[in-house]
Every structure is written in structure tokens, then in C-alpha cells.
Design a protein that fits this description.
Largest sheet: none
Number of strands: 0
Distance between the termini: 30 Å
Structural class: mainly alpha
């Protein structure tokens, strides 16, 4: 009964976002969302390829919903509908990746449904968090999907060595590595976001797990994550005409966390400014970090890196 109720609530939440995207796309139109729409329109008119006269400063739209929107616009001729469909399909793909990762980490059905439902009902202000992953633009959909897909592929790598004379049974590791490299390059074409949001955190988590577990498989995952981070950063430097400084982003990270990110989280959750409720997200985050670290020490094989994604 509980699983059925959670599944219905999840379907209702997803349907609400899909309805907003398809039938109310211009409800919260701003300059950023309009830019995504115009990119889709011009790309569709140019044979699904961005015009060669455009100059990219810090990033390229490679895996953004607006690229899918351009394809759909070429088919439907309705720009608002196409972008709404693109954002909805991209969001559903993100939820699918999240579900696969949670299932691989050993989540029960109720835990999995609660995690997905929490993602879509976290905030009260849809113009903040939700426009980044579900509504109208999906600015960070590709980075979030890249995070979960990277974790899925990375945790599938095996450090087991073949014995002398043993036949190779599959090319699973090679296929996963090819997928990880391709994903790192594609996300690198989109600027510094993936480097800061995906690859540096994963490299840090795998390094911690390697120190704790001291296993060959952990070393393989750490070296792979570090290589992907360097490859992603190199791609940013090679493809952007005016790339942002990596060290500048790292130096100003803590400052932006406390001056911009945490206040925006409070605003999205509609916490009263200056009240004790501001402490609640910090306390919950510390509790989650504690349990994640504890899980990292207990989990075996597949669960090692998967448990750490709670952080």
C-alpha cells in the first residue's frame, strides 16, 4: 500500500511538471529561458547545427535540452511545445538514471521512491531549483544526468585481473571507459560546471574510499576519476574561446557557498531570514555526511562509491 501511494505521488509530481512544460511554457519566461528557446529555434533553422558565425565564450550547448528542443521543433513547428517536451523528456531521463543508481546501491522500493519524490518536491520556489532540473530550461540537467551516469559507469569498473591462460569473457570495462571518456569530453565542451559539480566531487569521494578500503578496485576508480577530471578540464580549455580560470573558481568557491548558494537555498525553501530554521539544512547535511561516511566504511564492492553519493 505504501509503495503504491508513493508511486502515485511520484507520477502526480512528474505529471505536474510535464503539464507545466507543455501547456504553460511561457508562464515564467525570463531572459535566460528565452535564450534557450532562441538557441533551439536558430539551431533548427540551420539544419540542427548551431550557426558557424556564433562565437562561444565559456561553453557550448552540447547536451542541453535546447538541442533536443531544436530537433523536436524541426518536426512539430511549435517552439513552445518542442521546448516543453525536451525539458520533460530530459527530466524523466534524469529520474531514470537516479532510479538505476539507487537500485544498484541497494535501496528498497520505498527508499527509491522517496528519494525521487524528494527531488521533485524539495523547493517551494519553482524559479530556483526546479527551473534548473525540471522546468522550462533545465540549465543543469546535463550536468546532473552526467553525474549519475558517471557514477553508474564508474562503479561498474572491475579491478579483477585475469589469471594466466584465462579467456576474456567480455569487454565490459573497455565499454564503460569509452563511455566515461566520451561523456567527460562532451560535458567539457559545456564549460566549467561539470568539472566543479561532477568530476572534482567524484575524485574526492573515490580518494576517500581508497584510503578507507585500500583495495585495488578503489585505486582503479580513483585513478579513473582523476583522469576524467583532468580530461574534462583540458576539454574546457581547448574548446572555449574565453574559458574561466579553474583556480579562480576553486578560490572563490567557499565565498560563493556562504554568500550566494546557502541564502538561495533558504529562499527556495522559504525559510524566514535570520531565524533558527536556517540551521536546519546545515544540520541535515551534517547528519547525511556522517551516515554517508559510515556507509562507506561498511559497504562492500558495488556499494562503496554508491553509498557516498548521499553526500
Amino acid at each position: 500500500m505504501g509503495e503504491a501511494l508513493l508511486a502515485l505521488l511520484l507520477l502526480f509530481a512528474v505529471g505536474e511538471f510535464v503539464c507545466a512544460n507543455l501547456f504553460h511554457y511561457t508562464r515564467y519566461m525570463d531572459a535566460d529561458i528565452a535564450g534557450e528557446v532562441l538557441f533551439a529555434k536558430m539551431t533548427a533553422k540551420n539544419g540542427l547545427i548551431p550557426p558557424s558565425t556564433w562565437a562561444y565564450s565559456t561553453e557550448r550547448r552540447t547536451l542541453y535540452p535546447c538541442r533536443l528542443g531544436a530537433f523536436l521543433y524541426a518536426l512539430t513547428g511549435n517552439l513552445n511545445l518542442s521546448m516543453g517536451m525536451a525539458c520533460s523528456l530530459s527530466c524523466c531521463f534524469l529520474l531514470l538514471l537516479m532510479g538505476l543508481l539507487y537500485k544498484k546501491a541497494g535501496f528498497s522500493r520505498i527508499e527509491l521512491l522517496c528519494a525521487l519524490l524528494f527531488t521533485l518536491t524539495l523547493t517551494c520556489n519553482i524559479q530556483g531549483f526546479q527551473t534548473m532540473i525540471a522546468l522550462y530550461a533545465g540549465y543543469y540537467l546535463s550536468q546532473m544526468a552526467g553525474l549519475f551516469l558517471t557514477l553508474l559507469l564508474l562503479t561498474g569498473l572491475s579491478g579483477r585481473r585475469r589469471e594466466v591462460g584465462e579467456k576474456r569473457r567480455s569487454f565490459g570495462n573497455e565499454v564503460r571507459m569509452a563511455g566515461l571518456i566520451l561523456l567527460a569530453v562532451l560535458l567539457g565542451r559545456q564549460g566549467m560546471r561539470a568539472f566543479l559539480m561532477v568530476y572534482l566531487p567524484i575524485a574526492g569521494i573515490t580518494f576517500f574510499l581508497w584510503l578507507v578500503k585500500k583495495r585495488e578496485r578503489g585505486a582503479l576508480q580513483f585513478v579513473t576519476a582523476l583522469f576524467l577530471a583532468l580530461l574534462n578540464d583540458l576539454t574546457v580549455k581547448m574548446t572555449a574561446s574565453n574559458p574561466l580560470s579553474t583556480t579562480r573558481n576553486l578560490r572563490h568557491g567557499p565565498e560563493k557557498l556562504f554568500r550566494v548558494v546557502i541564502p538561495q537555498i533558504g529562499e527556495m525553501m522559504q525559510l524566514p531570514e535570520g531565524r533558527w530554521l536556517w540551521i536546519l539544512p546545515c544540520v541535515l547535511g551534517m547528519i547525511g555526511l556522517f551516515f554517508a561516511c559510515a556507509d562507506c566504511c561498511r559497504k562492500q564492492e558495488e556499494g562503496d562509491l554508491l553509498a557516498a553519493q548521499v553526500v
